[in-house]
Amino acid sequence: MSRRIITPPPAATVSGCNEYRTLDQRGVTRRTFLKGMVGTGALLLSRPLFPNLPFVAFAQTPREVDTLVVIFLRGGMDSLAAIVPVGEGAAFYDRRSQTAVPESRVIDLDGFFGFHPALGRLEDIYRGGHLAVVHAAGSPDPSRSHFDAMEYMERGTPGVRVTETGWLTRHLQSVPWTNDSPFRAVAMGALLPSSLQGPEASLALESLDGFELNVPDHLRPDLENGLRELYRNVGAGPAFQREAESVFSTMRDLRRMADGGGLERGNSGALGYPETSFGQALRQVAQLIRADVGLEVACVDLGGWDTHEEQGGVEGQFADLLSELGAGLAAFYEDVAERSNRLTVVTMSEFGRKLEENASGGTDHGRGGSMLVMGGGVSGGVHTVWPSLTPAALDDGDLAITTDFRDVLSEILVQRLQNPSVDSVFPGYRANYRGIVRPGA
Amino acid sequence: MHLEPSRLVDADLHLVNRLTWGARPRDLERVRELGEDGYLEWQLDYAAIDDPLVDRFLAEHPVLLEDVRGIRRALDEDYGAVYQQVIWGRLYRAAYSERQLYEKMVEFWTDHFNVPLPDMVPEKVVDDREVARTHALGRFRDLLMASARSPGMLIYLDNTFSNRDHPNENYSREVMELHTLGVDGGYTQQDVVEVARCFTGWTLDQEWRGSFVFDRNRHDEGEKVVLGHRIAAGRGIEDGLQVIDILAAHPSTARFISKKLCKRFVSDDPPADLVDAVATTFLATDGDIRAALRALFTSEGFRAARGTKFRRPLEAIVAMLRALTPGVQVHDMWAASWTLERMGHLPYNWFPPNGYPDSADPWLNVNGLLRRWDIAMVLAHTSQGWTDGAITLDLSAVIPDVPTIGELVETTWRRLIGQELDRGTRATILAALGDPRPTQRVTQEFREERLPSLVGLVLASPAFQLT
Predict the structure, then answer these.
(1) Is the dihedral of CA B150, B152, B157, B158 positive or negative?
(2) Mean of pLDDT values over B111-115
(3) How far is the C-alpha of B101 from the C-alpha of A163, rounded, in Å?
(4) Which residue from A415, A408, A401, A410 is spatially nearest to A428, judged by alpha carbons?
(5) Between B25-44 and B11-19, two packed helices, what is the crossing angle to 10 degrees?
């Protein structure tokens, strides 16, 4: 038996030193720490991982169903700074001396709104008609607690805290087809988001690579069988058995894929994914999509939007985050270009931020936010019933909400994901469709 | 997540597993010697417990005792070394301190008053020492006050930037939602605004930004109304002090803290009457944390909840280190911290202000289970050099020599889990060891090849992961 070093062996080989120590000795912050790991991941992924051909067939999913990628911008994204209402003139700019991009620097969208220049990489997709911008969107519940607001959105039931399942889980439960792929619903990250909580098996993965037990190869079957058996008999409840079984099916399928052949596209580094955990997560979602493993919904998070201080304007921490978002979305879209007709990406955030800046050069929790919807089936452009920023139109001093987030999600589920009973996803809610996506074939 | 209680866990083991970071044989001996109440009282009076290993650890890592300036200097010299020491300090004290309940409460308050480490290493080290470690088993009001004045909290939730012209609501909202009343605790958006005004001027010294000062020039001296209490105009730091008194004494706070304690120490869905009883004690004793814990640990609700908590990743790894004592030596913590990172539970690396989640739901997932099993297997197989020498394990110091394989399985289970092995599990484990006859002699070869597998399986088993 060869001598093996536990994760991350390639990093140890490359650097001659363990990754953790190496990175920390460079004196890095958390952010660059993650970037460093991602760099490692890029090395790992440059070797064969996924084949050209689908080696694992879960093909019960109808062909005309889009894969949905949900990107949650955690912390409350300042949509007024990202999709600038330049047409408001002084009603906007007088309230935003430090956190607004001047009209001369925005990327014009429709004469009234303009992208923050950090979203520059989305311009081509927007001009190509594949990106819809939904402004003044959000949740009808007025909570300005991050955690309540996120839970309400991810459970899909504003104001109701006892909902046990996530909206994506209910979608998966309510479609007429079955799909026993362990990759049916994947969250890129160590923990499962609330939108995927519930009895449908969903997978949280912080990396597709190295999903194995480090045990001697000749003992592996015995040990895996032993673990499976031990967890089959847990008296605590069925969740243990279900998750344990999923560990084994996930390992099995990743092995089959890895054994199947070469990576279909080795140059994804050239696409300009950000060297961050967000960029890495999107890259791996693209790999799952191209590998045809039955992926129906994927969740990716980008955090850091709680910009109470030193938010910045054209440049700064907010611009850096937007740039990461824009670059990630653009690289991802290019990576899965040949499948873009069967793909919808939607971004959401728990709330927008106050119209008025605070004293710290930042913005506090507000109301109306925005959603971006990207894909081949999207009707591009700005879709908004703009409430305006006149004092009377504001909601407690902030941008009002004219599009319920469930309107956007319902339309996507029905038109693009063929959901026949969106009522069970958003119980009691009657959605107004905005024409954001076209009906699928 | 509701988890069914287990009949296989006896009362002593249950108490020790919940009071400590993992039961070792001598912890079980101790509870049998002192009785359950005696054991609880011994652990509650933590200052009277000698803690030689931790004393030595701190003597060897003096940066953990420095102030903000001193830690900044050390970071300038070697950032990575300091960062590692801080994280290792969390694991080390959890694993090896004799003051186990104290260390569990330090962890509880670390989550409750979450302040992340990256970008704020000096402030976090001071925060850990002066907030959670000073008041872990003291009075809640003192804890809340220490947190409100902590440089780490003042920076993290932006109060240091707040002033009378633009009160910043970040701390104001979280101090009510997350630290005291709870989101349903009866405050309004107007209270958030008023509390923010009360805390204007609570900031850091200009020179080093390393210690609390009250800056009257930034303070809003106007009248405020907080939760129905009129706060008179023209005062200074007293506004914030009064807010802390109002919040600490509020019945919603008693209920919110008690429910969190019950979720941590009893079960993910604790019985309502137990939460009420703990809250009543909390309120009646003016927020005496010891009294609240005494009410909790001596309750029927606690006794009934055996085997209903799924160890969080940090708890699982620390419990493995404890179970393998004295055979395990950690020379470099990278394997443990790398695993914690991949499981989403690296200490002090949770960025939203609500702290790492407590219930099983977010932790019990495919990724989390695999990584958990993997670290159990890796630790058990360190004799094969798999951690590159970062962790070494001498299994002969943990699992005694016994004649037969059946006895080896039973002894290992008893040693690592702390209870007797049931027949079904025994058969499963034997099968996973190549299905030897239980009466077969333990050969040197079996010990070398299969004992690590046995230890790994036991550490990865549901019996170890659920306490």
Answers:
(1) positive
(2) 97
(3) 34
(4) A410
(5) 60
Q: Is the bond preceding B326 in cis, omega lying within 30 degrees of 0?
A: yes
The alpha-carbon gap from A21 to the nearest alpha carbon of chain B, in Å, equals 7
pLDDT of A26 above 50: no
pLDDT at residue A265, as a whole number: 47
Residue A423, min C-alpha distance to chain B (Å)? 26
Give the bridge partners for A437, in sequence order.
A378
Query: Given an 8 Å threshold on Cβ–Cβ distance, is A214 in contact with B378?
Result: yes
Token pair 């992340």 is at which residue? Answer: B116
Interchain pair A23, B80: CB under 8 A = yes
Higher-confidence residue of A395 and A255: namely: A395
Kindly state the greatest CA–CA separation across chain A.
74
Count of CB atoms within 10 A of residue A375's CB? 28
By the 8 A CB rule, do A273 and A280 touch? yes
User: Which of B4, B169, B386 is facing A235, going by the closest CB pair?
Assistant: B4
- pLDDT tens, position by position, A169-184: 999 999 999 888 889 9
Burial of B233 (0-12, 13-18, 19+ CB in 10 A): exposed
Residues in a beta bridge with A300? A71, A188
Backbone angles phi, psi at B450, to 5 degrees: -100, -20
Q: What is the pLDDT of residues B345-363, one digit of tens each?
A: 999 988 888 999 999 988 8
- ipTM exceeds 0.85: yes
User: Please, which residues bridge with residue A186 across strands?
Assistant: A203, A298
Q: What is the pTM of this model?
A: 0.80
pLDDT given at position A14: 24
SS3 label, residue A17: coil
Q: What angle do CA A379, A380, A382 make, to 5 degrees?
A: 115
pLDDT of residue A260: 60
d(CA B145, CA B105): 17
Distance CA A198, CA A329 (A): 28
Q: What is the pLDDT of residue A28?
A: 28
What 8-state DSSP symbol labels residue A154?
H
